[in-house]
Design a protein that fits this description.
globular; 121 residues; membrane; mainly alpha
Length: 121
């Protein structure tokens, strides 16, 4: 299998985990103020099937990353991990109603330029 498929797997499962956690926590509401209420909220969240799938996704992303590390130098593979925040931004704006700002677009462009420079030079 091409080493970059491992990186793609890492990215897909990382992004899925972040998006599903944010989506589900948005549905569950804000963290309550009191200690006992916080504990109950977090217990409820920890046993939520969607949140569990996010944790499983994070573990799966780690397995893909381990596979990538067996075939690539970390200095070649790690810049691609910068795509995770970029993908989370795009998906967050499109599906979660997150804010779309010029500053975030500038950051995305800088991330992409950084990946291009790091991988090609």
């Amino acid at each position: 299998m091409n080493s970059y498929y491992y990186i793609a797997g890492t990215l897909v499962f990382t992004v899925y985990g972040q998006i599903i956690l944010k989506w589900r926590l948005n549905q569950l509401g804000a963290l309550p103020a009191g200690f006992q209420d916080k504990a109950m909220f977090l217990c409820k969240a920890l046993f939520d099937p969607y949140i569990i799938s996010g944790f499983i996704s994070a573990f799966t992303a780690s397995v893909f990353w381990m596979a990538a590390m067996t075939t690539l130098e970390i200095t070649r593979a790690y810049p691609f991990m910068s795509l995770a925040p970029a993908l989370v931004f795009v998906i967050g704006v499109c599906f979660l109603g997150e804010a779309f700002t010029i500053g975030k677009i500038a950051g995305l462009i800088l991330i992409l330029l950084g990946i291009i420079v790091t991988v090609n030079y």
